[in-house]
Specification:
4 helices, 6 strands
């Protein structure tokens, strides 16, 4: 299955291949993640979980906060796992009640965690 994102402007008409020239990196990330989350929310794919690897890359802090709020509003029957190195996005997720583990690194072939949040979703 292939999905194509097309930008349309009321001022400029159909932008076709100019999407990358019109939308910022954060906008393109948002569009892609929105597509995945829309599929996950539907009944046809029956996704029990979604794994997002650094989905807020390129997003400003306002967009990160809005995205964290949208993730918090997803159907609670699905588990959403988010990997990020952006402290501001991790803070926005925590503000929405997300549980988190902060990895501090590897030691003797095992992951070590720096901190765990006691909050629940």
């Amino acid at each position: 299955v292939t999905y194509r994102i097309q930008a349309v402007s009321s001022r400029m008409g159909n932008l076709n291949d100019a999407v990358g020239h019109v939308l910022s990196e954060g906008d393109l990330s948002t569009a892609g993640v929105s597509l995945i989350l829309g599929l996950a929310a539907g009944q046809s794919h029956k996704m029990g979980f979604v794994l997002l690897d650094d989905p807020a890359q390129g997003m400003d802090e306002t967009l990160q906060g809005n995205f964290a709020a949208a993730l918090a509003g997803l159907d609670h029957k699905r588990q959403v796992v988010v990997l990020t190195h952006q402290r501001s996005f991790a803070d926005a997720l925590e503000k929405q009640g997300a549980k988190y583990s902060r990895l501090s690194g590897w030691k003797m072939g095992k992951l070590h965690y720096a901190a765990h949040s006691a909050k629940s979703t």
